[in-house]
């Protein structure tokens, strides 16, 4: 997939994800693609990396090999005035080529990255923290209930910070 400065990320991802998941291949006679290569240069370099990172999260289990290089781009301008020669400029621009594969790749290859572990979403982490806090409270409450001299006051964990003294110096 050649990523250009004007390419829309959603279009690139929709196409690549459909191919990697085996959708949208009428008449091709095959299933899902096992590999996809993204290339981009110059101002499209960051967009290329963004596409790859998003696709890795969408598809999952993809091995990656990244290669950086330079490309020489020759630009020619013709003069609008007669008798004035045109100008040709050669520029060197950075380029990146990233191979994503469902099949294992050589881990000794420079630029290799193994598949990412699936991480939980932030909402799931918050729910998990609330459950841990609730479990800690229940453990503390159970241990205090065993001792009659504990004298612990039950406070909801969410309300704990509201009991802090004001730092405004008494001004409200």
UniProtKB/TrEMBL annotation:
The keyword Calcium does not apply. Residues 129-138 have a biased composition (Basic and acidic residues). Keywords: Nucleus. Residues 163-172 have a biased composition (Polar residues). GO terms for cellular component: nucleus; ribonuclease MRP complex. The keyword Nucleus applies. One of its GO terms (molecular function) is RNA binding. Residues 1-70 form the DNA/RNA-binding protein Alba-like domain. InterPro entries: Alba-like_dom_sf, Alba-like_NAB, DNA/RNA-bd_Alba-like. Residues 102-138, 151-172 are annotated as: Disordered. One of its GO terms (biological process) is tRNA 5'-leader removal. Its main location: nucleus. Belongs to the histone-like Alba family. This is DNA/RNA-binding protein Alba-like domain-containing protein.
